[in-house]
Write a structure and sequence with these properties.
This protein is an alpha+beta fold and 303 residues long. It is 45% helix and 13% strand. Helix 4 packs antiparallel against helix 5. The radius of gyration is 19 Å and the shape is globular. Bound molecules: zinc ion (2 copies).
Length: 303
């Protein structure tokens, strides 16, 4: 099984360019990053072994699903693989955005010095510290940091956890966090066949059905405290928000497209970052913790 997570990205980018007006400007950049990742994995197909759930744990996993508890399965990463991918993606980003050349020279130096004496295996927490350091010391913007780290990490975890996601009994699970890795979701969809709300983990790609009138972050089920808005003339992407925890997530109404399972939702997410900015301006926080906008953008009022 190779790079299932990438299947159909070219078509999805084309589709998104037509669906979301504002995506036209960033689409080529996004495509170039997907191509670079695709090439990397094609060249390094033996780079790592996909994780599997030991048979003895399958039953345990099913029990956890019934109790709405996530497996929180997040294996540490190979430092070399992460650094290699991260640098590859940074190099391409600098190439496509010449104005950022100096920033990325700095990022490159910081990457070398941060990872020089690290162990061969690294945790997600350490990678997050590295992300913070780049924002503080290399002056890389929040939205760019979110893009770089989420695309690199999800490319690794999606490949690594795919085989487990396939056997996990997510149909028994009703929690808000990803049943497999425990991350908080950033987006999801309304299924064509029955309109059910299905969340997708931005990190490992697992999808699971979640009660439609319920906040995935604080479990609030008060109908009058849960709502959504859309950008005018573009009602495919709903920004679901909660008046209890003031978090938002994006839900794509796929009933309008009549094209379920094979969609690459991650690209729809990248194509609708304007909705994230609007949510920020309305005072909502990303429940996933992924900041797809910068605080400096919030002050620019659009009257
Ligand atoms: Zn996950
Ligand atoms: Zn909430």
């Amino acid at each position: 099984m190779d790079s299932l997570w990438l299947v159909g990205y070219e078509q999805e980018i084309e589709r998104c360019k037509k669906l979301y007006e504002d995506f036209a400007g960033g689409a080529d950049f996004v495509e170039s990053i997907y191509i670079i990742l695709d090439q990397y994995y094609a060249k390094n197909s033996g780079a790592f072994v996909p994780a599997e759930l030991p048979i003895s744990q399958v039953e345990e996993a099913t029990d956890l699903m019934k109790k709405d508890q996530s497996l929180r399965f997040r294996p540490d990463l190979e430092t070399e693989l992460f650094v290699d991918l991260f640098k590859t993606v940074c190099k391409e980003t600098a190439k496509k955005n010449p104005a950022l050349k100096l920033v990325f020279n700095e990022v490159n130096d910081k990457t070398d010095s941060y990872f020089t004496n690290k162990e061969s295996i690294i945790s997600l927490e350490e990678i997050d510290q590295f992300r913070q350091l780049l924002i503080e010391e290399a002056a890389i913007e929040n939205d760019m940091a979110t893009f770089l780290f989420s695309i690199v990490l999800s490319s690794i975890y999606r490949r690594q956890l795919e085989s487990i996601a396939e056997v996990l009994r997510t149909d028994l699970y009703e929690g808000g966090d990803c049943p497999l890795c425990g991350e908080k979701p950033h987006y999801g969809m309304l299924r064509t066949e029955d309109g059910a709300k299905q969340l997708e983990c931005w990190l490992c790609g697992t999808r699971w059905v979640h009660t439609r009138v319920k906040c995935p972050y604080c479990n609030n089920e008060e109908r009058e405290e849960l709502g959504y808005f859309t950008i005018e003339g573009q009602d495919l992407c709903r920004v679901n928000h909660c008046q209890s925890c003031f978090c938002y997530c994006k839900i794509f109404d796929l009933r309008q497209l009549n094209a379920d399972g094979d969609l690459v939702l991650a690209i729809h997410n990248l194509a609708t970052l304007n909705n994230d900015l609007l949510a920020g301006k309305e005072g909502y926080k990303p429940g996933s913790g992924l900041k797809w906008f910068n605080d400096s953008d919030l002050s620019e009022r659009e009257d």
